[in-house]
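Hey,

Quick one before I head out. I ran the complex with adenosine-3'-5'-diphosphate overnight. Inputs first:
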Amino acid sequence: MAVECADVESTVFEVVDELLDSIDGDFEGELFPQMRLIADAGFSSIDFVQMTVMIEEQLGEKIGFQDMLMRDGQYVQDLTLGEVIAFTESRLRKPAAASAAVTAPSAPAPAVGRYEGQKVTAQDVAAFTQLIKPRRVGPSGGAQRKNKRAVFVLSPPRSGSTLLRVMIAGNPALFAPPELHLLSYATMDERRADLNTEHSEHLLDGAVRALMHTRGWTGDQARQFIGECEASGTSTREFFGSLQENLGNRLLVDKTPTYAFSVDILRQAEEYFEDALYIHLIRHPCGMIRSYEESNLTRMMPLMMKNSDFSTAALAEMIWLVSNRNILQFSESVASDRWLSVSYENIVTDPEGNMRRLCDFLDVPYDDDMINPYGDNKARMTDGVDSASKMSGDLKFHLHRQIDPAAATRWRQFCSEDRLGAETMELISKLDADVASIRA
Ligand code: A3P
């Protein structure tokens, strides 16, 4: 055994300590083995996932933590620090068994808000829309000639967008880095000013990762270049261009779910790029809501009205509704041959069929590596710049070991369409016929 038990204990303590620093919880004082991670430390399920990624990274071993998170077909309700240590040590003594289902422990009950248990109404949606920070997307500056073609994956968060991005990154004709967060800002400087907060600074890393990959730079070199762009007033369009310069014939694919929060942001893609292509990724709202509740994204996205009294489920539903509504509205201004709708449910149940369809749309040859997303993590940029735990996008991607078809319908154990508001139901019925199967 390469790693000593004493190392495991100190690694787990260090990781939990570091995570506690980033959680706005009440826990203070010394960690102890009987400490319960949800009840005492205030962990949410995404903290569990982050903890497992960090422990694996520090120990340099794949542990297979999903077996710790699920017992006898049930998700564990809580875990003590001692249990995490014991599990990790046992895994280092014997090889991990294959595991089917992947999930994190149930998140603590979401904060009960004004709308807990009530259906989302048109008035709620109007109030919610006011909470989204208005985005002033100004002139892009610099050369007015449009950049060459790029591809955008458009979806709300928790729609399987990280999985789709990593599948796309398996095709050598495509370049799909982690979330770039460029289109929402006119200049690189404005982008830094908005994202440079404790909860969002990791969102700056997608651009760093992309430069490291395209130019063979270290993280520091890439950050220095971006710093120079910020200081010199470089527009985000010019920055997109400098990424595209080094891609040869590869198409740049940007998946940044927050673009869908505003039609004005989406329209920037038409302003910046020559004949951009769009992939609308749709997931059933109940699946997205369940995923959002489990991931405690509200904490990670202060933009989304942390202080509102909507319940987590109501917020998730409105994020689904407003994002998809914006995407559909934007699609009306785009030629139909530049638009493809796909669903998360279809991708996980028929990965090859859907990747072939996507390749036909993008006019690139299909590649089998697309349906093996757990291949080379450096090439697919699924490692973070400094640490995998800081990767933007879905940390749960790391818990899976393969594309999991059961994930398409897991939400059915927890909720039904009966809880959805009338506006959400109306939008479901407007979605492309290709994705009607998400309700089946
Ligand atoms: P759940 O939370 O319902 O499990 P996004 O990347 O847009 O935030 O989407 C996250 C969702 O994609 C999560 O849904 C996550 O589990 C799912 N996902 C990630 N990797 C997956 C895989 N290999 N197979 C199936 N679903 C996956």
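The longest helix spans residues 312-331.

Talk tomorrow,
K.
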